[in-house]
Amino acid sequence: MTEATTRPAEVVTARSGRPASEVTVEALAAGTLRTADIMISADVLRTQAAQAREHGYGPFADNLERAAEMTDLPDDEILTIYEALRPFRSTRSELDAIADRMETAGAVRCAALVREAADAYAARGVLRDGSAAIPPDLGS
User: Fold this and answer.
1) Which one of 35, 67, 83, 112 is most buried, by most CB atoms within 10 A?
2) The whole model's pTM is what?
3) Which CATH number fits the domain 72-131, given the four candidates 1.10.1510.20, 1.25.40.10, 3.20.20.80, 3.20.20.70?
């Protein structure tokens, strides 16, 4: 076992910095927990990514590393990105602008994924053409 799988709960922290050992039902009942106390930290996600990679789960590790980058992004920005990545929701330039913002924020892996999605959407014809906000009839 590696250090990551044997670390005591006091070493694992929430996004707020609160040790996992203090995130208890009692703390919840007492009203002392904040939202950030139950959110995963970038450090924990990076540790999980290292474990996944060590055990041969490269694509999963990549996802965890992107998730670690996203912990610094505001929730409303994440929802905006999610919405923009749906088919027929964004133009190529809008997706490029999102990727640029992510890169500026330090989310380089996420930015690369958005650019990859933009390429795939262009190839499949699922980018918004700029004139219609409603997707064409897909026969469903």
Assistant:
1) 67
2) 0.76
3) 1.10.1510.20
